[in-house]
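Technical note accompanying the year-one report. For the benefit of new consortium partners, we illustrate the data format agreed upon in the data management plan: each record pairs a sequence with a structure-token string. No post-processing was applied to the example shown here.
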Amino acid sequence: MTRLSSAARGVITAVAALLTLIAASATARATPEPKAPKDFVALSTVDPTIIQEMRYFTPHNFVGERIDGYRQPICILTRPAAEALHQAQRQLLRRGYSLKVYDCYRPQRAVDHFVRWAEDLDDETMKGEFYPNVDKTRLFADGYIAAKSGHSRGSTTDLTIVRLPARPTRPYTPGRPLVPCYAPKQQRFPDNSLDMGTGFDCFDPLAHTLDPRIQGQQRANRLLLKNLLEKLGFVNLAEEWWHYTYKPEPYPNTYFDFPVAWKSLPAKR
């Protein structure tokens, strides 16, 4: 009888533990995803003519896989930043050009993904294109990867200029031979952007906006983007010709983590 009681108590304990685990899992699944504040918008609702090539939704980036938090290939920004890009686009369209965005709001979980990748020194899948001359042990020290990104505050975007009519960009096929991001335009991965001297997300000093080695039409193209956006309130990150932040930022000290998805945005009323 004692053995039976002990066995019964063991079964009851195991069942109780299982029920607790199931309840905890259900609670975790029921936890709602964070949402964007009401003044975040999809760029396409402010200006549908701006081209979007959201790189982190694809494997064509320095990690080599879709980045955490990118549920849909859409550009999300604070409304002031989106409206400023709309003004820039209006000016470019009159000259036969268009903006193209590579990245906009970036959730903190995506930044965390970058950090995990940078700490994995054995993963150099995309080194041949994005950081051929950089030892991966230097990515943090040299400022290419950080635990926080201005993109997560919602007013920073990575972008370029495309001549119209825009030619389609060939899809990236994983496993294809990689070409350094600073190679001549006709050799590196095809992009319908104006020739800016390097590709997007090139971890190399040649990507510094005013690097003196970038001259001629490449420099003129960078300055076209820089001068246009700075007049509208954007500030360039000197180390990246494609990186601009709208000032003043509505959320200068807040790093959001809602997913890049339509359902993260406030419902229209």
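Partners are asked to follow this layout when depositing records. The mean pLDDT is 92.
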